[in-house]
Fold this sequence. Notes:
mainly alpha
Amino acid sequence: MKFEQYKLVKEHALAAVQAAGVSLPEAGSMNPVLLAYVGDVVFSLYVRLRFLAASSHVRVIHDLSSKAVSAVYQAKALAALMDTLNEQDVVKRGRNTKSSVPKSASMHEYRMSTAFEALIGWLFLNNEDERLETIMEQAFNIIIDDFKTK
């Protein structure tokens, strides 16, 4: 996207936010990248809050949290959870989303992490709080168990 296009889209988004009575689109119709964006924020906050009990040193919390929310670990968590998920259609939409892949993860890991984040975002936006908590707890435990083996 060119910078001029970006500015127009940003202005449109800000105007929509400022308009009275504007609500979020339905999660089922949202672009999976946007679901992943929301899911990234939700899971990052969850992980950081969980690590608060581990240390009073911000650097330690940051290092552990950054590692836990990386594409590599989110992909591992999703792979372990796949057989238990009823939300396969959301995962598939997130996994098939095209986006640029960072150097810190393989294409498969990045697509799986995007699918995981899209699932988290979808659950959050649909107010599926109990299911969201269950999946985040399970994913966190999978990630921590993997930390212990390394």
